[in-house]
Amino acid sequence: MKTFRADLHIHTCLSPCADILMSPLNIAAAAKRKDLDLLGICDHNSAENAAAVAEAAGRLGILALPGLEVTSREEVHVLALFDGIEAALSLQERVYAHLPGENDEEAFGFQVLTGADDEILATTGRFLAGATELSLEDVVRTVHSLQGLAVASHVDREGFGIIGQLGFIPDNLPLDALEVSRRLTIEEGRSVFGPGRPIITGSDAHTLEEVGLAATSFRLEAGTVSEIGLALRGLGERRVLG
Amino acid sequence: MDLKDLAEKLALTVFQPMGNFDVAVTDGYTGDLLSDVMGNAKEHNIWVTCQTHENIVAVARLKNLAAIILVNGRKPDDTALAKARDERVIILGTPESAFAITGALAGLFRRK
Q1: Whether B53 and A136 lie within 8 Å, measured CB to CB
Q2: Is pLDDT above 70 for A12?
Q3: B59 touches chain A (CB under 8 A)
Q4: Which residues contact B8 (CB under 8 A, 6 or more apart)?
Q5: Which among A35, A38, A92 is positioned nearest to A69, based on CA atoms?
Q6: For the whole prediction, is pTM greater than 0.90?
Q7: Which DSSP state fits A210?
């Protein structure tokens, strides 16, 4: 069993609101400087840069899990993390089929698709900053059907946080964890949001300086989503350490 | 003004009629952040929102709101509808925008 220092909420230059310098090589180098072992690459409503970051990070011995930060119909942000890029792309396909609008680069920013060596491949015109037409329940159900983890993003933030948008967390919503923003420690998160649901933290990095500003340490057999799932439930000696 | 009069005057669609249409509506509140509505809406207010998630029913019930008006032709989620029936929370609708229906409501209340 090993300890993994994980920042599971990192954006790339594909997210319109993220810095253009959030490229695969730069993210990998920043993660190395911050002693991170495990990353979650979660762009808004897209996983198209996740494989490139995984490749760049892998060269430095860092694992990067593919994911998305989906915006539900209620404008709640949900992190979806997967063990394989195929599952992430399956969710992306469903998201894209329910994501109306086109990006306005002047208003929202550039959405840059890159390769693992920071080569710029294209920009996408999809409205990644927008909300999908998928309900929160639909998003969580779809993530689980693809064996992924569904985590409510930055629950302590009013904008796009589940409690700000919906007043409280629906009892019957099978979220795997709640993420608190870097304004709170995990301990503070546990005391505010109760013992009922596992709490993690992530940086929500949109710039290189923010990578690793918040991280969660896990005790795992391997750096995978299925192992993290066990840790969140405290099973088989896997643990969220803090 | 009671809810029945108000719903007629504004030609609102009735999605979920189980509840009290005789309640005297005190004022209106408009918002899509449910945390804000929980903090600021008052008893027997009518609530204008585009949110259709089942949590709207719990918020309306908690704050003892007169009814919910969904805007832009939106319909309540199935789970919201079922819950509203159980909880006797009236859900209404309009093809109008939140701005337009709020303006119309404000006109009714301010004229009185």
Answers
A1: yes
A2: yes
A3: yes
A4: none
A5: A92
A6: yes
A7: G
Q: A74 CB near a chain B CB, below 8 Å?
A: yes
- Number of domains, chain B: 1
Looking at beta carbons, which residues of chain A come within 8 Å of B75?
A: none
Q: Closest to A166 (Cβ–Cβ): which among B55, B77, B79?
A: B55
CA distance to partner chain B, nearest, from residue A242 (Å) = 28
Q: Is A13 on the interface with B (CB under 8 A)?
A: no
CA atoms lying within 13 Å on the CB side of residue A9: 28
Please state which CATH class domain A2-240 belongs to: alpha beta
What ipTM did this prediction achieve? 0.81
- The dihedrals phi and psi of A196, each to the nearest 5 degrees, come to -65, -30
CATH number reported for the structural domain that contains residue B74 in this entry: 3.40.1390.20
B97 touches chain A (CB under 8 A): no
Q: CB distance from B37 to chain A under 8 Å?
A: yes
| pLDDT, tens digit (0-9, with 9 covering 90-100), for A165-199 | 999 999 999 999 999 999 999 999 999 997 889 99
Out of A73, A137, A165, name the one closest to residue B33 (CB). A165
Q: Which domain holds residue B91?
A: 3-111
Classify residue B43 by burial, with Cβ atoms within 10 Å: 0-12, 13-18, 19+. exposed
CA gap A145, B74 in Å, rounded: 28
Are A214 and A54 within 8 A, CB to CB? no
